[in-house]
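Quick question, first post here. What does this chain look like in 3D?
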Amino acid sequence: MEEGQPIGFRDLLRVDVRDATGRQIGHVQDMALQADLGRVPYIEFLGVHLFWTDRVGDIELVRRAEDLVLLVPWSDVASASEEVITLNSKHPEFPVKTAAGKWLVRKDILDKQMVDPEGSRIHRVDDVVLMLQGGRLKVAGLEVSKGMLLTSSALRRYLAEIRRKHASRSTSEVIPWEAVEGITPDAVVIGEEVPH
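> Answer (accepted):
Ran it through. Tokens below.
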């Protein structure tokens, strides 16, 4: 990942995660940000799908588990590339956080229906565009498929207007994060009405 260059969230799924000793401990399953549109949308947590483990920090599990995904603070990431993410902590001594009060990119945003404030459908979120800034990942926008833009001139005009309003220099397929008005269990609400 290069500073300032966009990367799709889907490109980071299943990237190897290593602990401070260099041992592969799992892979990226999700990422999370605080559920607050008033904050800068930085990825603050890495969802790590662990290989078999019987401990998480000081907690000893009842039995070994494989299907365990932990939220590790982004501050514990020592380095990140498109091939491997290395943590500062050694397995199993991770600073684990709860998912409460957070939006999980894969669970709450990716593939969700985008709607306008009136509930009119816009498109599904095909990918979440991230950008590395100062060693942290920031959510830059939501990507829609190029195929939809080719078949819908109304969608092209709608996206162009949103980008103009938010002074976005992103590509035509990306709705800037600043246009997001809310995230519900069923949809991502974009703060502009779809012209009828």
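Residues 106-190 form a domain with the SH3 type barrels. fold (CATH 2.30.30.240).
The longest helix spans residues 153-165.
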